[in-house]
């Protein structure tokens, strides 16, 4: 152990430390570091959790990519694409593609004795992944829909159930308007709630067989194909690569496909998430600044109180560098104690909220009913290392004040 570290440790652990005049300044510095780091951990955990939860909901509802006819982007009544082996093989060629599934949709109206509601029925087949919707179920079940027989069942949202006063097992008259009006009496098999109002207010799930018959399509036709990819970070790149794969491809109907991703279909939501990143950087800068400035004031008070000690060390041959390093190491010990308490507070909130969900949100505004949290070990380590390094670097400048202290004057200092 070198001399500055040894002296700093003796000062920090010595009994005189608790009796110094600078003790309140040291405590305030520790509190500043603790609060700053705790706020940073909580902020990053909440924003990361919020972004992750909302992205998972968006991709869970509509997958990462949508392959469809261009008309499907502007209307719920579309031309079909062909779900054939050639298209499936072509899509699976991309290394990022992990799953593909078809769907058909048609606009309709649900009517009860007292109310009616415009909806879009989304027909899905047996290959459709329903894990996400099973997690969002509030009542009933999410059937494994078939593509060869009509189940006459639907899964509606909680918003629809409230507006139409429906519950699981109820029958609902559903009307479709084309050249003439066609009606179906459907049974409510389940009720889901994602808190994504743009989807919950609109989509009803049923089997693809019934919707293809209503659309007068054959068995291998569908509104579009949803594609799940392996890595969200490659979303933009994968979108254009899949688009390039399909650039010269057309089906037996002569349809040329277009490819869009979930961010392009929901630009307002994802732009809002990008703004949250800016907010996080602002919070991090403010908290590190506050923690750093409290440490600067604490260090200056300690140096003033230790003026005589500085003079003694210099008279014994210690140069300015040794004395500076002594106070910087003393600051590291103080910062470390503050960071310890900051981690205890921040991680306690993280685990408490993760396991209890006691802090809630308004789902109409935030798309979820409780505050989500997510914190990875690399991010946690980065916050701690960054806080320590930046706080110490902010103290390098003030530590040069020891060069202005002369042994002769400091020995008479009181």
Q: Could you characterize the architecture of this molecule?
A:
- The structure is a single chain.
- Helix 1 (3-13) packs across helix 12 (320-356) and helix 2 (23-62) runs antiparallel to helix 14 (377-399).
- The mean pLDDT is 86.
- The protein is α+β, with helices and mostly antiparallel strands and 414 residues long.
- The protein folds into 2 domains: 3-58 and 269-411, no CATH class; 70-256, no CATH class.
- The protein has helices spanning 3-13, 23-62, 85-92, 131-135, 158-164, 197-200, 208-215, 235-245, 262-265, 267-305, 307-315, 320-356, 363-366, 377-399, 407-411; strands at 65-68, 81-82, 97-111, 116-124, 137-140, 153-157, 171-177, 181-192, 203-207, 221-222, 224-229, 258-261.
- The strands form 2 sheets. Strands 1, 3, 4, 5, 6, 7, 8, 9, 11 and 12 form a 10-stranded mixed sheet that branches.
Distance between the termini: 31 Å
Query: In percent terms, what proportion of residues is strand?
Result: 15-25%
Main structural class: alpha+beta
Question: Main beta sheet: strand number and arrangement?
Answer: 10 strands, mixed
Write the layout of secondary structure elements.
Layout: H1 3-13, H2 23-62, E1 65-68, E2 81-82, H3 85-92, E3 97-111, E4 116-124, H4 131-135, E5 137-140, E6 153-157, H5 158-164, E7 171-177, E8 181-192, H6 197-200, E9 203-207, H7 208-215, E10 221-222, E11 224-229, H8 235-245, E12 258-261, H9 262-265, H10 267-305, H11 307-315, H12 320-356, H13 363-366, H14 377-399, H15 407-411
Parallel strand pairs: 4-9, 6-8
Antiparallel strand pairs: 1-11, 1-12, 2-10, 3-4, 3-7, 3-11, 5-8, 7-8
